Amino acid sequence: MSYVVAITGGIGSGKTTVANTFQNNHGISIVDADIIAREVVEPNTKGLMSITEHFGPSILLPNGQLNRAELRQRIFSNPTEKEWLNNLLHPLIREQMQHQLSLSTSCYTLLVVPLLVENQLQYLANRVLVVDVLEQTQINRTANRDKVNIEQIKAVLASQASREERLAIADDVIKNDHTIYDLDSEIALLHNKYLLLSQTSINKEH
């Protein structure tokens, strides 16, 4: 398995932009927990079969896909159901993340995990990069991107780890309140650093 750098950050922090810049400018492979979370509940997966068995067929859309809105509603005010769902999905997502990491062929791999701190998944990575922005920046970006009201965004922020909790586990930090140009140059510096670290790690193994 290659050297793993986990990227995390709150809603609207720009994690995807940062990860895509590493990939597009430097050819680094990405394993994205959000994409995997969708894949493990696709039709005919163990995840969706278990969910359908538990909640009944009304949890499915007519095309056989998971009705996410319905599922959110079922678990929103029911901590027991939410815990059941997390106990089902988290191991499936972790297993798939580790599988995809093992297939990576770039000199190091980026593991994008929005809830890294909340789910204590730091152990999956050699290093943690936190994309940090001001809370107001998060609110503005998310409101513009998702066209949702500020109360909803604040509720999401309240459910996520605080900036302080994320920064406490960071090995590296990108302050992402600034321009794309600054971001590109900062990522280039981090890329060179990770190349060195991954090379050192390989040398130690041999």
Automatic annotation (TrEMBL):
<comment type="pathway">
    <text>Cofactor biosynthesis; coenzyme A biosynthesis; CoA from (R)-pantothenate: step 5/5.</text>
</comment>
<keyword id="KW-0067">ATP-binding</keyword>
<keyword id="KW-0963">Cytoplasm</keyword>
<dbReference type="GO" id="GO:0005737">
    <property type="term" value="C:cytoplasm"/>
</dbReference>
<dbReference type="GO" id="GO:0004140">
    <property type="term" value="F:dephospho-CoA kinase activity"/>
</dbReference>
<dbReference type="InterPro" id="IPR001977">
    <property type="entry name" value="Depp_CoAkinase"/>
</dbReference>
<comment type="similarity">
    <text>Belongs to the CoaE family.</text>
</comment>
<keyword id="KW-0808">Transferase</keyword>
<feature type="binding site">
    <location>
        <begin position="12"/>
        <end position="17"/>
    </location>
    <ligand>
        <name>ATP</name>
    </ligand>
</feature>
<dbReference type="InterPro" id="IPR027417">
    <property type="entry name" value="P-loop_NTPase"/>
</dbReference>
<keyword id="KW-0173">Coenzyme A biosynthesis</keyword>
<comment type="function">
    <text>Catalyzes the phosphorylation of the 3'-hydroxyl group of dephosphocoenzyme A to form coenzyme A.</text>
</comment>
<protein>
    <recommendedName>
        <fullName>Dephospho-CoA kinase</fullName>
        <ecNumber>2.7.1.24</ecNumber>
    </recommendedName>
</protein>
<keyword id="KW-0547">Nucleotide-binding</keyword>
<dbReference type="GO" id="GO:0015937">
    <property type="term" value="P:coenzyme A biosynthetic process"/>
</dbReference>
<dbReference type="GO" id="GO:0005524">
    <property type="term" value="F:ATP binding"/>
</dbReference>
<keyword id="KW-0418">Kinase</keyword>
<dbReference type="Pfam" id="PF01121">
    <property type="entry name" value="CoaE"/>
</dbReference>
